[in-house]
Design brief:
Length: about 170
């Protein structure tokens, strides 16, 4: 429906715990569309959480289709009020974020995760993800809890200036 500006640090909403969406209504479906439209319009973006567009609600969009590190791939996903059912197998990997545009960092994440939430039609959805998709899910879930990848790096030596490609 609309491409929205993506907020960057130090926007306060990025550090707040998002509120539950609750009922999936027309406003929730419009938010889903805005998340997908904004994600699609953002180069190299594989996920976007509602707080990143200034909406303090528990919702995110993700699509890792075609990513070279993908193993599992559920295509385009929008989830409301997601919760983790299972997570295991730590692995360290480099992450970046549209809300932290100048840096990347090494973050430990579970290699497999099972989450449950509601789709834009209000249906219960369970997703089992691994590898890069599991990392992307956890990254977006962190946004809903007021966390950024910078909050997860093990030390200042695990943060790097983002490379600029011309």
């Amino acid at each position: 429906m609309a491409i929205r500006p993506v907020l960057a640090l130090p926007a306060p909403v990025l550090k707040q715990v998002a509120q539950p969406v609750g009922r999936i209504d027309d406003a929730a479906r419009a938010l889903a569309a805005d998340l997908v439209d904004t994600m699609r319009a953002s180069p190299a973006c594989v996920g976007l959480a509602a707080p990143q567009i200034g909406v303090p609600l528990r919702a995110f969009a993700m699509d890792i289709t075609g990513h070279k590190k993908a193993v599992s791939c559920h295509g385009e996903v929008v989830l409301f009020d997601p919760e983790v059912l299972l997570a295991h197998g730590p692995d360290v990997g480099r992450e970046g974020c549209m809300s932290v545009p100048d840096f990347t960092g090494d973050v430990t994440r579970a290699t497999r995760i099972v989450i449950r939430g509601f789709d834009a039609d209000g249906r219960d959805r369970v997703i089992q993800a691994d590898a890069f998709e599991a990392r992307a899910v956890q990254h977006e879930l962190d946004h809903l809890d007021g966390l950024l990848f910078l909050d997860r790096v093990s030390s200042p030596h695990s943060v790097f200036r983002r490379k600029t490609y011309r």
